[in-house]
Amino acid sequence: MGKARILAVDDQRYFRELIEGLLSDAGYDVETASSGEEALQCLEQHDYEIVLTDLVMPEMDGTELVRRVRERRPHQDVVMVTGVVDVKTAVEAMKQGATDYILKPFDRESLVEAVGKIVDRLRLRSEHARLIEENLEYMGIVSLFERATGLFSTLAVEPLAERLLEGLCLETRAQTGVLWLAAEVGSESFGLVGMRGLVRVEGEPKTIGIDEIEAAWCPGLGGARSAVAVLPEDAEASEALFMPIRSGADVIGVARLSDRLHGEGFPATDRAMAEKFAELGGIALGNAMRFRALERRTLRDVDTRAYSRAYLDDAVRNEIHKANRFGHRFSLLRIDLEPSARLDRSTSGTPPLSAVDAGDFARQVEIALRGTDLLASEAWQTFHVLLPQTDALGVGVLVRRIERTTTDWLARHPGQLLRFASATFPADGTQLDALHRVIDQRREAARQSLLAAHPELARAQNIDTIFDQMLELGSVEALETEGEILRFVLEDVFRRPEDRGILFLSPGSRWASDLLETLEEVRGRATQTEIVILADGVEHESDSRVHVVKKSPLDARRPFAVYFGDGPAYALVGQVGVVASRVPLFQSSDRTLVEHLAFRLQRELGILVSV
After folding, report:
1. 3-state per-residue secondary structure call for 565-609
2. Which residues, 6 or more positions from 480, have their beta carbon under 8 angstroms from its beta carbon?
3. Fold annotation for 5-124
């Protein structure tokens, strides 16, 4: 405490000037007021350590002034100056809240001594309060460190991120929290890894960068320990606290906290504790990320540099946890290198792959993959790929990329062919074992596929040729069967609106009117499937789900349907321009064949399919 500031209140000018002079000479900062009302006005504008007031004053006496000061400032020290005859009254004033009293007449020594004792008490009280505050702050920091110690008990990044978010919500009393985290230290893109409270998953960006956060919500966040930002009017809460999570100099994540109890703001004390918790959490997360990177390097196959099967399975379990929490989809792809059935007669067998061959193949596969995909090897001829946020259609796109990037490798190894099989969460299973069982079933089905038995289908120059060859392998059915199947396939897409896929439909010259009628029946119903209709001369009202192709290289007279996606695969092919009661018809749920047809159609029609 510095030089004490005193307000002297007395209706007599002589005593005001006397008190001011004596106390000023003693080193105090003194102001005076001639009445109780003037004293209250001074207190509205300034702070004083002591209010020194005369007891007997007109209009508002000292007792009333004490009462009114205490109403406004409960902790204000007020000292009463009174004559000997008024001691009882002064005692009553102390009951109203006066700190002490000084008797008139007084000399310089007695006044300065009395005020000095009061100032000493104030200093002791202030020091005591400061020590208590420091002790409480120390205890709070110790408690925070104890809570933060738990963050260092695990090296699993995802569970650690959830514990960090939970801790930040507790420190700030926020009911809602969202956390975006980098995949590794140094990455500039953050993925959504944690949510707490009432958060709409679909309303939050799945990936975001610090620049985007600064542009959308709070400029300058990257250089601050925390920042409060006002959210858009349609947000759940009006105000949010953003906290960058740092590992050293790198920002490895951002937490957004909002919805404090009773709609309060974020006080400085809570922000300070949360900033310290985030600092410790950043250290723990940075350590976990570096450990994961080291673990990945040590769990790579020496020859192929792909991850081990054990590491892949752990990664899949973590992905299942995240997918359940955030409603994501992901897929597992298995790639088998198998001896080709079409070997030269002079070749006694397929030469075994060397470590160099397998490593070269793995590098070619990785060229086709995204940064978030994970490649693992199981022996030299079997590879697995974890594809986050990828459905069956996305897997098909990536398979086409892998086929392109490995073309030269296969040309150098003519005795090998690629066999693909995949499963998607949650459409094909919700547990690791179930997903691998589906992959094993589909791998065996791929070996028995019509495409494997008739490789000429894959070598055909165009899709019409493939359809003609398939029709030779079909059966003869009633004419009406074509139309019934086309209608059923289209309606089935809308019965499974959550499945993403692509449906190619051609009503041919016979079923255009029935197809348009079915489209009208399903108008307004939701679907994630993209529908492509080949129909020359057919007019259809614009619909974001339906694309009508009026001119294509395919024979528009042929009825066919090809669906590939998260649901059951299906293909139907009819004959061109036949009018009879019974017609040739080919239909199949052979997934390998249907996938091949779907992507041949996509390529020949110029339809873009995203991962």
Report:
1. ECCCCEEEEECCCCCCCEEEEEEECCHHHHHHHHHHHHHHHCCCC
2. none
3. Rossmann fold (3.40.50)
482-500 pLDDT, tens digit per residue, is 888 888 888 888 888 888 8
Cβ atoms < 10 Å from Cβ of 495: 12
Buried-exposed string 512-527: b where 16+ CB fall within 10 A, e elsewhere: bebbbebbeebeeeeb
Q: Is the peptide bond before 105 cis (omega within 30 degrees of 0)?
A: yes
**DSSP codes of every residue in 10-62:** -SSHHHHHHHHHHHHHTT-EEEEESSHHHHHHHHHH---SEEEEES--SSS-H
The closest alpha carbon to 52, from 71, 70, 31, belongs to: 31
Question: Do 53 and 81 touch, CB atoms closer than 8 A?
Answer: yes
- Give the span between the Cα atoms of 43 and 65, in whole angstroms: 11
The predicted pLDDT at position 467 comes to: 92
Domain locations along the chain: 5-124, 154-297, 309-447, 459-605
Q: Which two tokens stand for residue 304?
A: 């192929």
Q: How many CB atoms lie within 10 A of CB 146?
A: 9
Give the residue among 105, 102, 125 at the shortest CA–CA distance from 114: 102
- Structural tokens at position 412: 């150098």
Query: What is the CATH architecture of 459-605?
Result: 2-Layer Sandwich (3.30)
DSSP annotation of 362 reads H
Of the candidates 435, 405, 228, 260, the residue with the CA atom closest to the CA atom of residue 331: 435
Q: Tens digit of pLDDT for each residue in 254-289?
A: 999 988 876 778 888 888 888 888 888 888 899 888
Mapped onto helix, strand or coil, the DSSP state of residue 184 is coil
Residue 317 tokens, joined: 């379990």
User: pLDDT digits over 472-484, tens only?
Assistant: 998 888 888 888 8
Question: Residue 345 — very low, low, confident or very high, per pLDDT cuts 50/70/90?
Answer: very low
Query: How far is residue 541 from each of residues 501, 515, 529, measured CA to CA in Å?
Result: 22, 13, 18
Does pTM surpass 0.90? no
**In this structure, are residues 503 and 534 in contact, taking their beta carbons and an 8 Å threshold?**
no
CATH of 154-297 given 3.30.450.40, 3.10.20.10, 3.30.460.10, 3.40.50.300: 3.30.450.40
Cα dist from 223 to 70, 121, 156, 189, 506, whole Å: 45, 44, 28, 17, 58
In contact, 259 and 198? CB cutoff 8 Å: yes
Pairing state between β 174-182 and 189-196: antiparallel
338 strand-pairing partners = 417
3-state secondary structure of 174: strand
User: CA-to-CA distance for 544 and 531, rounded, in angstroms?
Assistant: 9
Decide if 23 contacts 6 (C-beta within 8 A).
yes
Contacts of 318 (CB under 8 A, 6+ apart): 156, 158
Alpha helices in 428-502 (DSSP H): 432-447, 450-453, 456-459, 463-472, 479-495
Q: Which CATH architecture has domain 309-447?
A: 2-Layer Sandwich (3.30)
